[in-house]
Automatic annotation (TrEMBL):
It is an enzyme of class 2 (transferase). UMP binds at G54, D74, T135, G136, N137, P138, F139, F140, T141, T142. GO terms for molecular function: UMP kinase activity. Keywords: ATP-binding, Cytoplasm, Kinase, Nucleotide-binding, Pyrimidine biosynthesis, Transferase. It comes from Spiribacter pallidus. CDD domains: AAK_UMPK-PyrH-Ec. This is Uridylate kinase. The lineage of its organism: Bacteria, Pseudomonadati, Pseudomonadota, Gammaproteobacteria, Chromatiales. Residues 8-216 form the Aspartate/glutamate/uridylate kinase domain.
């Protein structure tokens, strides 16, 4: 097998990626499949940090729209990401992969605090690090947390998992003429308001020159293809 082209990756999984066919919560079968894919990367010596969203349980904006105070709602959203992180840790440990959950908000009896140097040390020791609770601040998203952490831990690339195999010029489900971009610049994504990640996350990656690959997490083997250097999904870079 070829040498991986990336030494350290940050994989952003939305809460939705854990849903499977359900409307709410976590599908254990999906979790097992994702854990197995991450395991195969670890076996190849790739250092893996995960940022998991919480949209399968709570989203702050949704709760606020229903009348809740936004800050409290975002706290609930962040706690949802911790729950997803614990579920993913369990699935990875069933695979025999050493894993640490680190939270941006202190919940010491549940998981470690996020401390950058410690996170990097875990990665160097071959442990998967699950970075939970987003940035720890309300009004942000886990996409922004993913770009921030990718830069902080010195990831070679940030992998943004979605339900389609990249970024399209239009919705590929409804528009036959939609075409997939193989490559985009950060400014194109911002100017054309392409739905890759929120603008805060894109600007962070742009300013720190962190490449992003948007890919279909439901395609088995996609992660392995990416670390093999294959042309998968859409690459966003300078
Ligand atoms: N959240 C937050 N600050 C952060 C990251 C997340 O307040 O830095 C909250 C916010 O309410 C958000 C929820 O956590 O709606 C879940 O995160 P997100 O919506 O990014 O999850 P995803 O869409 O990736 O499943």
């Amino acid at each position: 097998m070829a040498e991986p082209v990336y030494r350290r990756i940050l994989l952003k999984l939305s809460g939705e990626a854990l849903l499977g066919d359900a409307d709410y919560g976590i599908d254990p079968a999906v979790l097992r499949r994702l854990a197995a894919e991450v395991h195969s990367l670890v076996d190849r010596g790739v250092e893996v940090a995960l940022v998991i969203g919480g949209g399968n349980i709570f989203r702050g904006a949704g709760l606020a729209a229903a009348g809740m105070d936004r800050v409290g709602a975002d706290h609930m959203g962040m706690l949802a990401t911790v729950m997803n992180g614990l579920a993913m840790q369990d699935a990875l440990e069933h695979e025999g992969v050493f894993t640490r959950v680190m939270s941006a908000i202190k919940i010491n009896q549940v998981c470690e605090d996020y401390i950058r140097r410690r996170a990097i040390r875990h990665l160097e020791k071959g442990r998967v690090v699950i970075l939970a609770a987003g940035t720890g601040n309300p009004f942000f998203t886990t996409d922004s947390a993913a770009s921030l952490r990718a830069v902080e831990i010195g990831a070679d690339v940030m992998l943004k998992a979605t339900k389609v195999d990249g970024v399209y010029s239009a919705d590929p489900v409804t528009d036959e003429g939609a075409r997939r971009y193989e490559r985009l610049t950060y400014d194109q994504v911002l100017d054309e308001r392409l739905s890759v990640m929120d603008a805060t996350a894109i600007v962070m990656c742009r300013d720190e020159n962190m490449p992003i690959i948007v890919f279909d997490i439901n395609r088995p083997g996609a992660l392995a293809s990416i670390v093999d250097g294959e042309n998968v999904g859409t690459r966003v870079e300078r």
